[in-house]
């Protein structure tokens, strides 16, 4: 684990600040995207504010001094929003160039592009990145770079909380679903025929839509459009879905700052440690799970002291799970978690 140098730390701070400003500018500019126009009906003109890509809208009234002022204010506001977004987008490109030169880029570019697309559609906070790529978020939080061989992965898992209202996400994705969003990033993404929860592009990179296992009485499919990905239920994810979430700006391999929502790093480490002890887990995956658990636990203890491993902070885990995870992390390592005591 290597700490970032002062120049890299500065670029990380600047990237975080710039991204948060840019995404707000993007959302503001997108609020104007469907436009406002005059529509003629029965010999009169009416001002209509469109609210979706299908042309649906709402009439704001007949043409008069008031609606003409509304239209003028909308046009002026749109111009200002577009100009601000263009300026910030240029700064984002320059920052990406600096980040790449400083060797800050860690997250695979395709993952960064998917996360940027989620953010542009205002659904970034509806999906949590779990699995290996979440570690890039923890690196960014701690200001370190971890062993790259433990971060390599050919897929990204997007965890959705099925307790959230599906209709809200579906509306934001404008009927195209998650698969449609992926295809805007890379047209080669296709849903795999035998695994409806997974899409893969022509390079073999995969995106999985997952949810925690639900009660048998709940049969509603979690999907966001016709022919879209359909989430698969994965056992024992309830710990991660109930854990606190953090929104972290990481750096993609092309230098672009991207926001990713990740579970609390303590939850990640403990869940990975617990997985490494499961008898039905593949041996290769079990070894990798434990190595990642130890690495993230060390990262938290060394660089994120505000996040203690104690039972008061980890109430979303069962006592048995915490005991098994602690045992797995402490075995044959220098990590000690005395706060997880009963």
UniProtKB/TrEMBL annotation:
Positions of the PH domain: 1-31
Q: InterPro entries, alphabetically?
A: NTP_transf_8_dom, PH_domain
Protein origin, superkingdom: Bacteria
Pfam families with a match to the protein in the record: NTP_transf_8
Can you name this protein? PH domain-containing protein
Its lineage reads: Bacteria, Pseudomonadati, Pseudomonadota, Betaproteobacteria, Rhodocyclales
